[in-house]
């Protein structure tokens, strides 16, 4: 049987949209209220939940609320897609091995929140996109799949970024497809 997916995002949600257009998504979770990904969910008729860390007494309590949602929906695979928080010990204890992330660089090159800008500023002639398992580090988990993306001589940071996103929209669904059909 195909596995049940949840997507976590914090803002724009373009990767969430690409995923939801190709696979049934049980719900999207956002750690911010009022962000565009929630609008996208509404338009795509995907259930969404949003709550913020500051509404809880601790990160453990915040993550326990997330774990409760995941358990309630019997989620098999969590796809982080622009979820801008480090996954903490409560969520990892319950779901490690079932959480994947997309990163807009060729890990271990350029980990962190500003990977595209960092690669651009370093003057590389290629960067990439990586899908990896999530562990307690920042973009350190075991790599599942990655592709190289060139930086072309007449690129601006905008055109470079757009090319990276295009590759994200192809790679993430490919990996998800493989994982949800696996036993
Ligand atoms: C993507 O580039 C993803 O790789 C990174 O955050 C960005 C999210 O974009 N982790 P979006 O919210 O999916 O549009």
TrEMBL record:
Family matches, as SUPFAM superfamilies: Formyltransferase
Positions bearing the site annotation: Raises pKa of active site His: 139
Binding positions for N(1)-(5-phospho-beta-D-ribosyl)glycinamide per the UniProt entry: 13-15
One function term, GO molecular function aspect: phosphoribosylglycinamide formyltransferase activity
One Gene Ontology cellular component: cytosol
Domain Formyl transferase N-terminal: start-end pairs: 3-176
Pathway connected to this protein: Purine metabolism; IMP biosynthesis via de novo pathway; N(2)-formyl-N(1)-(5-phospho-D-ribosyl)glycinamide from N(1)-(5-phospho-D-ribosyl)glycinamide (10-formyl THF route): step 1/1
Key words of the record: Purine biosynthesis, Transferase
Gene Ontology terms: biological process: 'de novo' IMP biosynthetic process
One Pfam family cited in the UniProt record for this chain: Formyl_trans_N
Catalytic activity: N(1)-(5-phospho-beta-D-ribosyl)glycinamide + (6R)-10-formyltetrahydrofolate = N(2)-formyl-N(1)-(5-phospho-beta-D-ribosyl)glycinamide + (6S)-5,6,7,8-tetrahydrofolate + H(+)
Active site: 103 (proton donor)
Enzyme class: transferase
Positions bound to (6R)-10-formyltetrahydrofolate: 59, 84-87, 101
Enzyme Commission number: 2.1.2.2
Alphabetized InterPro entries for the sequence: Formyl_transf_N, Formyl_transf_N_sf, GART
Function: Catalyzes the transfer of a formyl group from 10-formyltetrahydrofolate to 5-phospho-ribosyl-glycinamide (GAR), producing 5-phospho-ribosyl-N-formylglycinamide (FGAR) and tetrahydrofolate.
PANTHER family, A to Z: PHOSPHORIBOSYLGLYCINAMIDE FORMYLTRANSFERASE
NCBIfam families: PurN
Family indicated by similarity: Belongs to the GART family.
Protein name: Phosphoribosylglycinamide formyltransferase
Gene name of this polypeptide: purN
